[in-house]
Structures are given as structure tokens and as C-alpha cells.
Design brief:
This protein is α/β, with parallel strands linked by helices and about 775 residues long. It is built from 24 helices and 27 strands. The two termini are about 40 Å apart. It binds zinc ion (3 copies).
């Protein structure tokens, strides 16, 4: 990667060993030539990988002997335009320990300078205008370095050698404080004033690395409520920034893997199981067992947290509900007007918006949860199983792959042609693939408003520029109404390749795990356009990259009102009940039915009878919605998948019981029937079984059925590899139990961790499918 201090590192390594020679960036990567005694050269090569700077990633290395050429010193040869492009651009990285020490050191010339950075840390991706990555082509171009900064920049032994954003109080960006109307306030120390405002329960818009945050004191319920009201965000959890892992431990359960995730240089938001009593206000994440915590990653954030002595600050994207995050000062002044009481801004431009990343840690066991994993059955594991299990025991799962991770590529198993894949509709990302690299864009979001659509176009444009990739084909989702699909269909001059949604999910999982050949794929999610025009979402595929056969799915039920049913899960509950029990369900003595608003119910039943605006679905997400509504967890939702999430959260002490589901074979396909499942839920409701038990039995029923299905498919096809993908697999209880049970039955199970298993990972799968189809069409 460029600008991560690799060349100075090599310079030091070589000169310490009295080696002479050169290092330079070339189109194929970094090339070094070193001369010296055999022992020194061997030592150089063997040490090379160990002490490399944190951001360097050596993917491949080859060594060969050359005749001596009489070099007398070790030199770094400057890269020329057009030469360095094949080294990768680094993501934005959290403030390193060395910079942090200088930041808080009263004698240091950068004491309390909010933009301190070095080759090991600071902004990268978000300040790059063009390549090669050099100061004039970044938003630092307008800040000529002072003599002291320039000397650091020019010295190969300095930590700031070629650190493009290098700056100080004398030459670099500066803070400014604005009032709620965007008027400059003459403040002696903007950070002190902001800390005071936050302490008083006010809301501050702060310019960060990839966009503005809205900050509020997370321990002050009134401040959090005020933020919710102004941001028009109901119930959807807020992320919370805490000053240290020690404080994080006061609020949440944190094991070694969670600790590592919090402290990683990417500083993602980590979803953590919250402790029952904590100072964080309930309104931060209502009805949720988890809290999204992250540590400060810019000098400004460090200073603010320290200044106010804050234990927890809500730090949420600076936007109104689902719009993209604001990045520009003027844009913030207008778009965040009325949301913030103060604006803490600066004059270093953010060239590309990049939201905070969100990850969760998939637990090795559910020992910390109310419901432990059911004990493994007696079948002994072989050694490989054990090793695989240990390796996979705890895995980071990406929920939103953005700041800190982008634009690091996903490394592919084999070379692919240049492909642009435009992703789905919700949680959109795009992917540019070339050679053995698949570059996923930052999180673009839901393409449902003009702002997001503009961001989508910008992201495509910018990625193509900095990666110098001109696509030979464009891949898109089958859904005719997706904005991404409509955009793709307007492009001319390259082949356009449509990829079915769930096929893309499975291909994404295959690509990330470097699989080839044919796999059994479970694609479980809320919504995806099916090849038959129905809404799919509980699909079992036999898939290769090029193609797939749908071999099992949930039985179809109508979705009364379409999108309205996604917002109002009670509609799905009624749909399932009417589907399975006709009008008889109205006579059932259930709290859910008693509570239904009669006129709404009548309308809905008419809609179902006449099949008006009631597309058919096999969606797993809608099944979760129906069960959640039926057990009284939620009739309507305030954010995507809320009912399903709260159904998972509700699980309390399971008793090993699983609800039954039917597997019916129909002309070589399996239909997963849900009638007996609903029958069992209704019986349990009638005997006042708690929702937590019903939820556990429901989850266990799904796991058992999927495992049974996988067994049938293995008998029929001899396939032993199972890929799990789709947004429903963000449900840790389901994902973990399913993985364990499948492994127990001898399957090789593959899940996603590098890219999201939800729709944020679709673009990778689309690119993988398109590259194989393109290769095939060229052979013909
Ligand atoms: Zn640093
Ligand atoms: Zn300076
Ligand atoms: Zn999906």
C-alpha cells in the first residue's frame, strides 16, 4: 500500500545491516535490490515480514540472486506518475500510540494539535483525489508544509517520511466553532467549549474522518432523547464512543476477541452484549441486548473525550434518518441545520464520505447468553474438525464494511477480468474487481433517496479513478426496480450481466472463502427478486459461480401490502394464519388476535382474498416477522429487521425443544412447510409459554430443518460443502447453532467474515458470478 511507511522501514532495515541498493514502487508491487554479505542479506529477507509497519500487508514475495552492481548506499527511488498505481491505497487509520503520546505531551510541538498523524496513522482514502497518492493529489494540497514538517517529510528515518497529511499548528488544518446557525464563534479553545455544551445536554455536530458525527452525552437520557427527536430516528440503536476498553468493560461483556476488535487500527463499532446495569441511557439502544461501542480514532475525538472526562458519547452519523452522512462544511451547515446546537468544523476537506464500520463477534459458545448452545451430540470430531472449529470459534463478522477497511481489497482465488458490480438496493456497496483483487466500496446505504443515489454515482466514479479500472462488464441485481439496476441498464458499450440476488449471496461467500466447484448454499434474508418473479428469501441452492439451481425454499405465502408488510409485521402473522388455517384462526383464543384492530384486519383479509398487492414470498425474514408479531414482540417496526432482531434478543433458557417444519418433495425440489410450526406456536401461546421459550424453539426448529435438508441434499448430490449467507445469518444464535450442527454432521461449513453476509456483500458475489459468465462467453 502507498503511504504506509514501507519504504522507510526497508531503508532502516537495510542501513542497519550495512546493505546497499534501492527500493522502488513498480507496476507489479515493491521491488528491492540489496547488496552485502550473504548473512546480512539472508537476515534482511528473513526479518522483512516481521517488523513491517502496521499498515503494510505482504501478499506475496519472491527472491532471486543478481550480480553485484557496485551501489555505495541504500536509496529510495521516487515513484513516477503511472508507476505507483499498482500499489494499493491505504484506508483511514486510527491515531497511533506514538502520535497519541505526542498529542498529550505538553512539550511537544504538536501538543493538542487535533490533526496530528504520521505514516502509521491518519486519513488516507477519504482525502485522496487522484493517484498516485501524493500530497498535491489530496485535500492536503492547500496546506504547504512549514520547514519543520517538510524536514520530517524528507527524512527517511523520520516517522513522518512521506506522510502525505503531515501537518502542525503552524502549517496545517485548524478547527473552528460555529453556533447553531453556522456563524463562527470566537472561542479560545473550541474543544473546551464543545465539551461544556455536551455536558449541558446539547448536541454537537463534529467533522470527523469520513463525515460529520452528531455527538451527545450517552449517559444523559434527556440529551439522547433530544437527539432522537431532532434526527427523527425512533429506536434504531445509536453507536457510543468510549475513551478506553476499561470503560467499555463497565458497560459490556468483553472477551479477548472483542478487545482485539475494539483496539484494531480500523476502530470499527463493535456490537457487544451489554451488562444489565450501566450508566449508558436506555434510549441509546432500546429493546436491544447489544450496544455498539467504539474507541476514538482521530486526535480530535481523543481530545474531546479527555477534555470533558466523558465515559460515553453517542456518535451517530451526521444526517437526517437514512440520508448519506454529511461531509462538507457548507453541506453540514444546511443539512444539519436544526439538528445541532454547535458545529465543530475544520478546513481539511473530506473528499469522499465514509461511514463508521460495524462488526460483531461471533461467539465460540453462548455461555454468556441466557441460552447455552445445545451440547454436541456424541459423534466424535476428527482432528481437522477440531482445528477448524478452534480457528472459526470466534470470528469477526462485518455488518457494515466501511471506514478503516475500504479500499483494502478482498483477495481472490484466481484472476478475473475487470468487472463493476453495482450491488443491491439496501445497504448498498459496489465492487470493482480486477486481477486477483475485488475492491468493495464503502457503505453507500439505502438507494431510496436522491442524495444516496448521487453518492452511489460518486463512489463508482471515484473508485474507478483511484483504482484505474475500466470495467469490461457490469453486473447488477435481477430486481427491475432497484436504482442500482436502473443505473446499470443505462450504461452502454459493455456487456450487462444480471445476477439473481441469492445466487450473489452464495457466490460472495464462495469468493471470500476461495472456493471453487459446486456447493450447497443456504441464502436466508428478507427480500430478493426471484427468477420466477416472486420475492425470495429462504432459499437453498446448488450453486457454482456461473449458475445455480434452486433446490429448496420456504412455501410461498402472500405479503399483503408489499412494502407496508415489511414495516408492519402483524400483516405477515395474519397472512400465515389465514394461509394455514383459513378463517378458523379468527376463533383462536390468542392475545395477538384479540388485539388486532378490526377494520384493519378486515381490509387485510379482503386484500388477501382478492390477492391485491400481495406478492408471494419464500422469505425467511418475513417468517421471523410473523412469529415476532404473533408472540407479541412487535406489530410494527422502526428500522429494517427490528422485529427479527428483537425476536432473537428475546431468547431465554431454551429447553432443547424444536418446533417441527415439514419437508415436502415436489418434482425434485424440497418445499419447507410452516403449518406445523405455526400450529406449535399457537399451542404454546395458548398455554402462556413465555416469548423467550417460543423464540428458542422457533430458532431450534429452523436449525434442525436446515440440517435435515442439507443431509438430504448430500445424499442426493454427494456435495459436502455448505455456504451460509444472507442478512438473516447476522442472527448469531441461528448462525452459530446452524454452523455447529452442520459441522457435527460432517459438513464443511463456510460463512462470511471479511464482507457482510447481508446485502452489503452482494456486490462481491455479483462480480464473481459475472467474471465466470464473461470468461465462459469468451471461450465460446
Ligand atoms: Zn501516528
Ligand atoms: Zn508544520
Ligand atoms: Zn439479500
Amino acid at each position: 500500500m502507498q503511504g504506509v511507511g514501507f519504504r522507510p522501514y526497508i531503508y532502516r532495515l537495510a542501513t542497519e545491516r550495512k546493505l546497499t541498493g534501492t527500493i522502488t514502487n513498480t507496476p507489479s508491487g515493491v521491488t528491492m535490490e540489496v547488496q552485502g554479505t550473504r548473512e546480512s542479506v539472508d537476515d534482511f529477507v528473513s526479518c522483512l515480514a516481521h517488523g513491517a509497519p502496521p499498515l503494510a500487508r505482504i501478499t506475496d514475495m519472491s527472491v532471486r540472486d543478481l550480480p553485484c552492481n557496485g551501489d555505495r548506499e541504500f536509496r529510495i527511488i521516487a515513484s513516477q506518475r503511472g508507476e505507483a498505481v499498482h500499489t494499493l491505497i491505504s484506508p483511514d487509520v486510527a491515531t497511533c500510540d506514538d502520535c497519541l503520546r505526542e498529542l498529550l505531551e505538553p512539550g511537544d510541538r504538536r501538543f493538542r494539535y487535533p490533526f496530528i498523524n504520521c505514516t502509521n496513522c491518519g486519513p488516507r482514502f477519504t482525502i485522496v483525489r487522484d493517484i498516485p497518492y501524493d500530497r498535491p493529489r489530496t485535500s492536503m494540497a492547500v496546506f504547504p508544509m512549514c520547514a519543520a514538517c517538510q524536514a520530517e517529510y524528507d527524512n527517511p528515518l523520520n516517522r513522518r517520511f512521506h506522510a502525505q497529511p503531515n501537518a502542525c499548528w503552524d502549517c496545517g488544518p485548524q478547527l473552528e466553532l460555529w453556533d447553531r446557525n453556522g456563524k463562527v464563534i470566537d472561542a479560545s479553545d473550541p474543544i473546551t467549549e464543545c465539551a461544556a455544551a455536551l455536558k449541558a445536554g446539547l448536541i454537537v455536530a463534529m467533522k470527523g474522518l469520513g463525515g460529520f458525527h452528531l455527538a451527545a452525552d450517552a449517559t444523559n437520557p434527556a440529551a439522547v432523547a433530544l437527539l432522537r427527536e431532532r434526527k427523527r430516528r425512533v429506536e434504531k440503536p445509536f453507536a457510543v464512543m468510549v475513551p478506553s476498553v476499561e470503560i467499555a468493560k463497565e458497560f459490556c461483556e468483553i472477551g479477548a476477541e472483542e478487545h482485539r476488535a475494539l483496539m484494531s487500527i480500523q476502530r470499527p463499532i463493535v456490537l457487544l452484549q451489554r451488562k444489565s446495569a450501566s450508566e449508558v441511557a436506555e434510549q441509546v439502544a432500546p429493546f436491544n441486548r447489544y450496544l455498539g461501542l467504539f474507541l476514538p480514532y482521530t486526535p480530535l475525538q481523543h481530545l474531546l473525550l479527555a477534555e470533558g472526562g466523558f465515559k460515553a458519547l453517542v456518535m451517530t452519523s451526521g444526517n437526517l434518518s437514512e440520508e448519506p452522512i454529511a461531509i462538507d462544511n457548507d453541506e453540514a451547515r444546511s443539512r444539519l441545520n436544526g439538528l445541532a446546537d454547535y458545529f465543530l468544523v475544520h478546513n481539511r476537506e473530506i473528499l469522499l464520505r465514509c461511514d463508521d464500520s460495524v462488526v460483531q463477534v461471533s461467539p465460540a459458545s453462548f455461555a454468556n447468553l441466557a441460552t447455552p448452545l445445545r451440547p454436541l451430540r456424541s459423534k466424535a470430531f476428527n482432528r481437522k474438525d477440531r482445528e477448524d472449529c478452534a480457528r472459526d470459534a470466534k470470528k469477526i463478522q462485518q455488518l457494515r464494511r466501511s471506514r478503516g477497511f475500504v479500499p483494502v481489497p478482498v483477495f481472490l482465488r484466481e484472476e478475473v477480468p475487470s468487472i463493476l458490480a453495482v450491488g443491491g438496493e439496501l445497504k448498498n456497496t459496489v465492487c470493482l474487481a480486477k486481477g486477483k483483487h475485488a475492491f468493495l466500496s464503502q457503505h453507500i446505504g439505502d438507494l431510496e433517496n436522491l442524495e444516496s443515489y448521487k453518492f452511489f454515482e460518486e463512489a463508482i466514479e471515484h473508485l474507478q479513478t483511484i483504482l484505474e479500472i475500466k470495467p469490461e462488464a457490469i453486473a447488477y441485481d435481477l430486481h427491475p426496480d432497484y436504482f442500482s439496476t436502473k443505473w446499470a441498464l443505462q450504461q452502454t458499450g459493455v456487456p450487462l450481466i444480471a445476477v439473481q440476488h441469492h445466487h450473489a449471496h452464495i457466490a460472495s461467500c464462495m469468493a471470500e472463502n476461495h472456493l471453487d466447484g459446486t456447493v450447497i448454499g443456504f441464502a436466508l434474508d428478507g427480500t430478493g427478486y426471484g427468477s420466477d418473479g416472486n420475492i425470495w428469501g429462504g432459499e437453498v441452492l446448488i450453486a457454482t459461480y456461473k449458475d445455480f439451481k434452486r433446490t429448496a425454499h420456504f412455501e410461498y405465502v402472500p405479503v399483503p401490502g408489499g412494502a407496508a408488510a415489511i414495516r408492519e409485521p402483524w400483516r405477515m402473522a395474519v397472512s400465515y394464519l389465514a394461509h394455514h388455517f383459513g378463517r378458523d384462526f379468527l376463533k383462536m383464543n390468542l392475545p395477538f388476535i384479540a388485539a388486532l384492530e378490526r377494520s384493519n384486519l378486515t381490509l387485510l383479509l379482503q386484500m388477501l382474498d382478492r390477492r391485491v398487492n400481495s406478492p408471494l414470498t419464500s422469505s425467511c425474514g418475513r417468517l421471523f416477522d410473523a412469529v415476532a408479531a404473533l408472540v407479541g414482540i412487535r406489530d410494527s417496526v422502526n428500522y429494517e429487521a427490528q422485529a427479527a432482531i428483537e425476536l432473537e434478543m428475546a431468547i431465554t433458557g431454551g429447553d432443547g425443544i424444536s418446533y417441527p417444519l415439514e419437508l415436502a418433495e415436489e418434482s425434485n425440489d424440497w418445499i419447507i412447510g410452516t403449518r406445523s410450526l405455526f400450529g406449535a406456536v399457537i399451542r404454546d401461546l395458548a398455554t402462556n409459554t413465555p416469548a423467550g421459550i417460543i423464540s428458542a424453539r422457533f430458532h431450534n426448529g429452523l436449525v434442525d430443518t436446515f440440517v435435515r435438508l442439507a443431509d438430504h441434499l448430500r445424499d442426493r448430490t454427494q456435495l459436502n460443502r455448505v455456504c451460509l449467507s444472507g442478512g438473516t445469518l447476522n442472527n448469531l444464535y441461528l448462525a452459530e447453532h446452524l454452523r455447529r450442527q452442520l459441522e457435527e454432521n460432517g459438513f464443511d461449513v463456510y460463512t462470511q467474515s471479511e464482507v457482510p453476509c447481508g446485502d452489503g456483500g452482494l456486490s462481491l458475489g455479483q462480480a464473481a458470478v459475472a467474471s465466470h459468465r464473461l470468461a465462459e462467453s469468451r471461450i465460446k
